Sequence to fold (408 residues):
Amino acid sequence: MDERRAVEQPGGRQAMGGAEESQRLIPLHGFQRVLGTFGEEDEGPLFLITAGIHGNERAGVEAVQRVFAALREAQGTPAGRFKGRCVAFAGNLKGLRAGVRFIDQDLNRLWTKKGIARLLAGDPSLDDAEEAEARELLGCFEKELGRARGKVLIMDLHTSSADGPPFSCMGDTIPNRKLAFALPVPVILGLEEAIDGAMLDWFYEQGHVAIAVEGGKHQARETVDNLEAMIWIALVASGNLHERDLPRLGDFKRLLEREVRGIPHILEIRYREVIRPGEKFHMIPGFKTFDRIQKGTPLAEKDGEVLRATEDGYVLLPLYQGQGEDGFFIGRRVPRFWLLVASLLRRLHASRLLPLLPGVRPHPEKKDRFLVDPKIARWGTVQVFHLLGYRRRRPEGDQLVFSRRPQW
Ligand SMILES: [Zn+2]
Fold:
């Protein structure tokens, strides 16, 4: 028995078990929308978890099942002391049952304001597979949010087709940082800007704390362990569990630290390779997330053309499966110092000075938005907006658009 499998849970149960256990867990519970609930609707935090929003990413479901089994077992003991409430949902139920990322469309791409408004105005009997999933999830989320009396946090669990260590993704707000930096894994900034309509956007827009975590390769056993460790650590960071009631907290942290040794703490997305319908994409074999690459490194082939790295950096989420519209991302290290500068500037409300930058003007119709003329704006303008807690939106004509995040 290796070290990882020997880690025991507060209830005395071996909650970080291996493949045999996971094979037992899934058939027992099947895939249901509500994977687990724990705790009371008191003043404490509401911690929501979503797993399998991509149906071929089952490891998150297993991780959630382990956590809830351990919580239930610990009930009535000090380890079962729990503030607030934790609820976990399965994302793409039909996808999970079929073992595919999605049936008709990516469930993690239809949560734009417009998309949700269109969905709610539409006839449910005409929903495609993922619209029906989104409609049901939305109902579940709203029910929970309506009852919440404390702060709300959400963690969305993912896995990937390539090998690679665990990491988290977040929109850079101070409350998100608190949760993401509690996990000893690299944090990737700007993925939510690169991807339109991710489910977490819906939560961001309402000002909730929302981060996504990647556990590793889809079927790897470590992936479930990594996701489970991240859930436990997050439950302590959120205030649902007290550190002293989770004696194995240190083990979970060490497990993750081992997985991410040598990788920068913070990276930002610099490039996204989009695969459009009909395009033939082939990632060159052997890349893992966080592999270092030099500008010009051949990474993939698309419609017979070689795609090379646009700059030095790290390759992220290289696509080694049929379904998916992101071929790969390129990230670059962000010095922690910059994040400190960013919080300071936000506290000083430095965004008041934004209209003084060349090429930048307030949006004529929308509050808290700016238009940027890329022909006039200086190099670094995008970075300044990021520092000040703004997020890049879809461009309007040839103008870049930035909006302030609901909570900085
Ligand atoms: Zn995913």
The chain has three domains: 4-259, 270-333, 336-404. Confidence is low (pLDDT under 50) at residues 1-29. Residues 54, 57, 158 surround zinc ion (CB under 6 Å). The radius of gyration is 21 Å.
